[in-house]
Design brief:
By secondary structure, the protein is mainly α. Helix content is about 70%, strand content about 0%.
Protein backbone atom coordinates (compact mmCIF):
# COMPACT_ATOMS: atom_id res chain seq x y z
CA UNK A 1 0.00 0.00 0.00
CA UNK A 2 2.79 2.45 0.84
CA UNK A 3 4.49 1.68 -2.46
CA UNK A 4 1.33 2.63 -4.36
CA UNK A 5 1.09 5.90 -2.43
CA UNK A 6 4.76 6.63 -3.12
CA UNK A 7 4.25 5.82 -6.82
CA UNK A 8 1.27 8.17 -6.94
CA UNK A 9 3.31 10.96 -5.35
CA UNK A 10 6.08 10.45 -7.90
CA UNK A 11 3.53 10.52 -10.72
CA UNK A 12 2.01 13.76 -9.44
CA UNK A 13 5.49 15.21 -9.01
CA UNK A 14 6.28 14.46 -12.66
CA UNK A 15 3.01 16.13 -13.68
CA UNK A 16 3.90 19.21 -11.65
CA UNK A 17 7.31 19.42 -13.35
CA UNK A 18 5.60 19.25 -16.75
CA UNK A 19 3.05 21.91 -15.77
CA UNK A 20 5.82 24.13 -14.39
CA UNK A 21 7.71 23.83 -17.67
CA UNK A 22 4.59 24.88 -19.60
CA UNK A 23 4.09 27.87 -17.29
CA UNK A 24 7.75 28.85 -17.71
CA UNK A 25 7.55 28.67 -21.51
CA UNK A 26 4.27 30.60 -21.52
CA UNK A 27 5.79 33.37 -19.39
CA UNK A 28 3.41 32.72 -16.48
CA UNK A 29 5.78 33.56 -13.63
CA UNK A 30 3.15 33.27 -10.90
CA UNK A 31 1.96 29.86 -12.10
CA UNK A 32 5.57 28.71 -12.43
CA UNK A 33 6.43 29.79 -8.88
CA UNK A 34 3.25 28.17 -7.52
CA UNK A 35 4.17 24.86 -9.18
CA UNK A 36 7.71 25.06 -7.79
CA UNK A 37 6.34 25.54 -4.28
CA UNK A 38 4.04 22.52 -4.70
CA UNK A 39 7.00 20.47 -5.97
CA UNK A 40 8.98 21.48 -2.88
CA UNK A 41 6.09 20.51 -0.58
CA UNK A 42 5.68 17.08 -2.20
CA UNK A 43 9.45 16.56 -2.13
CA UNK A 44 9.50 17.34 1.58
CA UNK A 45 6.86 14.64 2.14
CA UNK A 46 9.10 12.22 0.26
CA UNK A 47 12.06 13.22 2.45
CA UNK A 48 13.91 15.07 -0.30
CA UNK A 49 15.41 18.44 0.62
CA UNK A 50 14.64 21.23 -1.84
CA UNK A 51 15.89 24.73 -2.45
CA UNK A 52 14.20 27.11 -4.86
CA UNK A 53 16.26 29.93 -6.33
CA UNK A 54 14.77 32.65 -8.52
CA UNK A 55 16.84 34.65 -10.96
CA UNK A 56 15.40 37.58 -12.88
CA UNK A 57 17.36 39.58 -15.40
CA UNK A 58 15.98 42.55 -17.31
CA UNK A 59 18.20 43.96 -20.03
CA UNK A 60 17.61 47.35 -21.62
CA UNK A 61 19.48 49.28 -24.23
CA UNK A 62 19.77 52.81 -22.82
CA UNK A 63 20.98 54.18 -26.16
CA UNK A 64 17.84 52.98 -27.93
CA UNK A 65 15.64 54.43 -25.17
CA UNK A 66 17.45 57.76 -25.37
CA UNK A 67 16.96 57.96 -29.16
CA UNK A 68 13.22 57.40 -28.79
CA UNK A 69 12.97 60.25 -26.29
CA UNK A 70 14.75 62.74 -28.57
Amino acid sequence: MLDSIKSELHLRLNELFAEAAVDKLAGDAEGYKAKLLKIAQVSDVLGVATKITYVNINLTDDMEEASRLS
